[in-house]
Design goal:
Largest sheet: none
Radius of gyration: 22 Å
Shape: elongated
Number of helices: 8
Helix content: over 70%
Number of strands: 0
Strand content: under 5%
Number of domains: 1
Distance between the termini: 4 Å
Order of helices and strands: HHHHHHHH
């Protein structure tokens, strides 16, 4: 499912900035005199950090997107039980099936085969829902869904970062009890962030499918599926 360019950029900056902040803290801890030797002002450091933050954010987003793809494909469904989200997931699939059936019914009436779209049918159907909601719903409804989706994406990025930090803390040159505290703290943060990711992902998609189903149930709605093909090319 696509989000706006502004939301995406903010997501990348926030993800990359977290890595820069943690790196800065580690440098202060291990090399306290190093920063004083850098020939750059505080303003220059901040200015130079922005493109680095975006670069790191792109890397984190790419890695977390792979995890989200595995999750949607069913390889990480065990985490639904870990976070008690099995019933919410089934509810999302149920609402999605309602929209899917309505969409296929209207497509059959128009004599259109979804095979002609040339992309995965599930991806196409999900993105038709996106197109309907963001083109036909009022800005408050679409913005509300977008906020939950954006938070879901940011939480998944942060979860990947905290998981990496938790594992990396085991190799720090600090006392064992300190490493254990850092590891437990990192894993706890990862659990909370994954819970937010899963909950917001399911909620945003459930609302997306339901709003699209209501719109598509309106017999007066004129929907050109061939035209929709041009815009339904994102990844859910």
């Amino acid at each position: 499912m696509q989000i706006t360019t502004l939301n995406k950029i903010i997501n990348l900056i926030l993800s990359g900035s977290l890595i820069i902040s943690i790196t800065y803290i580690l440098i202060l801890f291990y090399f306290p005199d190093y920063l004083a030797t850098l020939p750059i002002s505080n303003a220059g450091f901040v200015a130079a950090s922005l493109p680095v933050a975006i670069f790191l954010g792109v890397i984190i987003e790419s890695m977390s997107e792979n995890l989200r793809i595995l999750f949607r494909a069913g390889f990480l469904k065990f985490i639904l039980y870990l976070f008690g989200a099995k019933k919410r997931w089934e509810r999302m699939l149920s609402v999605g099936s309602l929209f899917r059936g309505k969409l296929l019914y209207k497509a059959d009436l128009k004599g259109i085969s979804l095979k002609e779209v040339g992309i995965n049918e599930d991806v196409y159907i999900a993105n038709v829902a996106q197109c309907l909601v963001f083109q036909k719903c009022n800005s408050e409804t679409s913005g509300w869904i977008l906020q939950h989706l954006s938070l879901s994406l940011l939480a998944s990025n942060y979860a990947l970062i905290t998981l990496s930090l938790a594992v990396g803390s085991l190799f720090l040159n600090v006392p064992l009890n300190t490493r254990l505290i850092l590891f437990i703290s990192g894993m706890s943060a990862t659990y909370v962030l994954c819970h937010i990711w899963i909950r917001k992902f399911i909620f945003s998609h459930t609302e997306l499918y339901w709003e699209a189903y209501v719109l598509l149930s309106d017999e007066a709605l004129k929907l050109d599926l061939r035209a929709t093909k041009q815009s339904a090319t994102g990844v859910v």
